[in-house]
Amino acid sequence: METIGQSANDEKLAAEAMARVAADAAALSTEELELVNLDLQEATGTILGTLPEVMALRDSIVKELPAFDIKYVDKLEDYTLALRYAHAAYQTDIPMGNDLTELAQTASTLRERLLADARALSLHGLLDARKLDSLKGANGVKNVAQDLQMLSQIFQESWPKIQGKTATSVEDLESASRIGTRVTRLVGLLEQSPAQTEAVTEQRQRVFTLAIRAYDEARAAIAYVRRREGDVESIAPNLYSARGRSRPAAKPPADTVPGGGGVASTTTAAMPSVSPEAVAAAVAAQKGGAGSKEPFMS
User: Fold this and answer.
1) What is the CA radius of gyration of the chain?
2) pTM, whole model, 2 decimals?
3) Which domain covers residue 197, as residue numbers?
4) Reduced to 3 states, what is the DSSP secondary structure of residue 232?
5) Is residue 231 in some structural domain?
6) Engineered SS bond to 17: which of 81, 119, 170, 172, CB 3.0-4.6 Å?
7) Helix (H, G, I), strand (E, B) or coil at 93
8) In a domain, 161, yes or no
9) Number of domains within the chain
């Protein structure tokens, strides 16, 4: 256990990685930003898993591709850790809307049930029907929240007369009050923090762009330096088609480009003629892009 704990202590902090790449993320133009279209938990796990083999090929990349910007390899870990950080920030900020949607449904159902009981009691003269006229109605989550609070209080005021004569319980009234307050709180937070939500969303998109670009460029470089072995997929899988890392028991006779609809090569002998430009085009095809971007920038 001590060894495991020590290995965890050796891990880099995602927040520190975020700070290191902040300038790179801010330098991206709006037009450069990539759409976040991957399961980021899975994607970042895959990238981190490839790092030992990617870094083992660093010297070969520098030697065979002197024009390649080696920062894509050197910063890949920081970009990936920063993406995990940005994604966590996004998840803790955005799900509030999902929580509110679920809670609003619960609130609406409880409101209808309490209102039905209140009307039945009013017909028997056990509850003042005029108080129900002040309810806001079911149109809008704010109104539902306010009605829950009001219904809770209306029931409590008449509780000595209605206790034991209604299916509504004290626990229902306490839940109504708490749910109404929680809904009101969440609505208020959402209304007051659109700028924060937008900032967190953009931060994630910017860091995603950095990470996915660096990984694609590293893949392109690896595909070139390992062109004779043809094992780029086992070293750095295509994030848009692979689900985890896998090593084939035997090398297939042809290297089919995932998602590209074509065959990259049919024989090992043909591999040395692959150019960096061709590799970049293959990577772009794997992502479903319309064209290629030059991966070997000086």
Assistant:
1) 29
2) 0.53
3) 13-249
4) helix
5) yes
6) 81
7) helix
8) yes
9) 1
